[in-house]
Every structure is written in C-alpha cells, then in structure tokens.
Amino acid sequence: MSLYKNMLWTVLARYGAQGLMVAANILLARHFGSTGFGDYAFVMAVVMVGNAVSTFGTDMVLIRDISSSGNFREVPASLFLQIFISTILILVLYFFAPFLPASHALRMYIFALLPLSLFTIATSILRGLQRMAEFSILHFTVASLQLLAVILLLFQDGTLERYAAYLLIVQIIGTGFGTLLCARLLMDSPWRVGISMKAVFHLIQSSARLAWIGGLRLLYERWIAMTLPFLGTISMAGLFASSSRIMDAAKLGHLAALTALYPEMARSKADGHHLRTGNIVLFVASLVIAFGLYMLADPLVHILFGAEYSEAIPALRLMAWGIIPYYLVSYYSLAFVALELEMPVLGSLMLAFLILIFLLTWLVPRHGLTGAAWSTLAAESLHGLSLWWQWRRYAHSKRP
Length: 400
Hints:
The protein has one domain. The longest helix is centred in the C-terminal third of the chain and has 56 residues, at 343-398. The mean pLDDT is 80. It has helices at 2-55, 58-69, 75-96, 103-109, 113-128, 132-156, 160-187, 197-231, 234-250, 252-268, 276-304, 313-320, 323-338, 343-398. The protein is built from 14 helices and no strands. By secondary structure, it is mostly helical.
C-alpha cells in the first residue's frame, strides 16, 4: 500500500510541478520566439547534461543504499565528488562558451551546477527514504519559483541573460529548501560527516557504470537540442523544443510512477513478477497517451505556442509514438539497475545513441525538423526493443 501511496504522491505533485513548468515554457516560447527559444533550449540542455556528468551516477547509488539498508555513509563522498566535477565543468564551459550559441546566458547559468550538486544529494536522500511527500513538495516549490521568475521577466521585457540570472537564484533557493528538508532526517540517523579519499574512490568504483548510464542517457535525450543549431538552424531548435516540452509533459505520469517504483525495486531485488500488474497498466497508459497526443497535436501546438510554431506539428505527431518505447526504456533500465546489472542498460543506450547520431546527421540536412523527429523515434524504438529482449532473456534464465 505504501508503494502505491508514494506513486500517487509523486504523480500528483509531478503533474502540478510540470503544469507550472509547461506554463513557464509556453510563456518563454511566446516571449522569445522560435529563435530565442532555441537559444534557451540549448543552454538548458548543456547545463542538464553537465549536471548528469557531475552527478556521476552517485544519485542512484545513494538511493539504492539508503532504500535497502538505511545507510548514509556515501553522502559526504558523493557531495565532494559532485562539487569537484561541477567545478571542472564550470571552468571548461566558461572558456568554450564564446564559441557556442547564447554564450552570455550559458556563462551565467553554468554556475547553477554547484547548487544542483547539493540539490541532487537532497532529492536522492528523500527518494531513498521514500519521503515522497517532501520530495514532491520540493519539486513543486522549485517549479513555482521558476514560473514566478518567468512572470517577472515578462513584466520587465527581459532577455535570456536576465532569465538565466533569475534561474540561478531560484536554484540556490531550491537547494537551500531541499537541504533543510533533509537536515532533520540526517540528524536523526547515525552517519559520519568526514570525507576520506578511500571513500571517494570506493564511490567512484561503485557508481562508474551508473555514471556512464546517467550521463550518456541525458546526453542522448538532449543531443538533438544541442546539435540542431549546428545541423539545422537555431529556429529549428526552438520548434523542436516546443514539441519536446509537450512530450515531456506527456511522459510525466510514467516518470513519476517509476520514480516512486525504483526504491521498491532496489529493496526487493526480485525479478519483477510482483510488479507485473503495474507494468501492464503503465504500458497500456503509454498507448493511450501516444494516440491522444497524435490526434491532438495540431490544437495543442496552436493553443499553447501559437501560429509561429505550426511547423512543429508534423514532428510532434511522429514523436508522440515515442511514448511507448520511452516507457519500455525507463522501466527495464530501472529494473536492471535495481538488480545491479548495469551492462545491458549501458550497451543498449550506446547502440541507440550511435543510431541517433547517424540518423540526425543523415536526415536533418535533408528533411529538417521532420528528419529530427524520425531520428528520435527510430533510436528510442530500437533502444526499447533491445532492453525488452535482454530482460526476457534474464527472466527466462531465472526460471527453475
């Protein structure tokens, strides 16, 4: 019962938070236009990938350890490692920013990698302890602050650089709130504050495969936003970003449910048979959402983003069917990671990423935005089928 309660908490709060984020992105898209929105999408993609790299898979290790044994011993080493990697990334990106789109905004917002490190630790602790109410409240609060930042920007008719500054402030406030939520939980539990290099190296060994998976997964998801300005145009990147924002909202229910489900997977160490009912329900939901999104693509784009983004409608109709393989990828990836079997996940992800790079390079110069949509649908479908096939082999090997 507690599992389904946590899933319900997460789904409701995530939909609330995502609703605020969708509203914020709609306002930004209308304010900046497709070109400016493309710049915004590029900056967000770079920082999100940077955060995934700096996290180095330690979030999944923390969740797994805390949920299975209530052990907080990896927290200090994880924080040290994330801050260290974030600092290096900030220096590198700050140097190369002048050669990239939206360089001034990027130079400002990359400093969010530091508070994001602590924010990741806080959310990992909350998820590991199954404190999904606090986890959901934290995300809802941050989303609310981001929407307020957008409204303030619109009143001032501000630029992307100003919005980057507002987002940095929001992230600092959100990190402070997350730290306060975790402080009482940590004080009530036995753990050591000290950091030793031995503990850091042990954490690196434990999280190395997860680091590859997490970093590569986010790079795979954001690769189109990062490369469309170079393969196509910055305006094309903005059009694709509008479709992606609708897709992100459509994926939210599955994401929230699986966020709550992963700690249960880690605790049980089972082969997933007891979760089969939930798996079927979520798969059927993915079919319904994909069909609905395909049918409603035209009114959704026009109502939410306006006539300027009408070229994104064919791309959204193609991308809508990606909801189905996305669910397969998310579910089976978490199932393998919970069992500490990361190699099937990493192998499938690398294959899908290589296919995505090849298809984008081939299709975008020839077919533009539609080529980008076909590329992401084909790569994600291959990714999902690969993981599903490997899970069937694993489940068959476990049968008596």
